[in-house]
Specification:
This protein is α+β, with helices and mostly antiparallel strands. It folds into 2 domains: about 120 residues, Signal recognition particle alu RNA binding heterodimer, srp9/1; about 45 residues. Helix content is about 60%, strand content about 15%. A 3-stranded antiparallel β-sheet has the order 1-2-3, with no helix packed on it. The two termini are about 20 Å apart.
């Protein structure tokens, strides 16, 4: 009887370990797909804005304000976070795709213009890595706790069975 329980315990822990590995793989796949979709979505928004010149604001609101589409530019400020005023009240079109903008100086015309930043700075990455480290630490810890709990419950069940046979 004890041999049969050991075999069952072995397969139960093996199944739990396989489930945890599958869950980790699924999580990694979801993270990569989400990052790919997010990056592609931002790039498509930038491209659609660059195709419609009247939707991008700059210091000069005329067609020369979009000099960054036709001229070489020098980036003055890269990926600056838009203020709440620009996002909500002013509704600046250079802030809508990502919430960040580049301030550029067009070399030929000398105009200072704003363009959407293609990538937001990685302010989310440190918190994501912290989240991942916490999960990696908690994974084996929760596994060990659950294995100990199952062993304790099995021990209690075996003692009850043996006590019922003794009485």
């Amino acid at each position: 009887m004890a041999e049969k329980c050991d075999v069952l315990e072995y397969y139960r822990s093996k199944r739990l370990f396989s489930f945890i590995i599958a869950l980790i793989c699924f999580t990694v796949i979801v993270v990569f797909v989400e990052e790919y979709a997010e990056e592609g979505n931002g790039d498509s928004q930038i491209k659609s804005i660059s195709k419609t010149p009247n939707e991008v604001s700059s210091t000069d609101l005329g067609p020369s304000g979009m000099c960054w589409l036709n001229e070489k530019v020098t980036v003055i400020d890269s990926c600056v976070r838009c203020s709440e005023f620009e996002m909500n009240a002013f509704k600046a079109k250079h802030c809508t795709p990502t919430g960040f903008y580049d301030r550029v100086n067009c070399s030929q015309s000398g105009i200072v213009a704003f363009r959407p930043c293609k990538r937001a700075p990685s302010s989310i990455q440190p918190s994501f890595y912290c989240f991942m480290v916490i999960n990696v630490v908690l994974l084996p810890l929760s596994y060990l706790i659950s294995v100990k709990r199952i062993a304790e419950l099995n021990r209690l069940a075996y003692t009850r069975v043996t006590q019922s046979f003794e009485c």
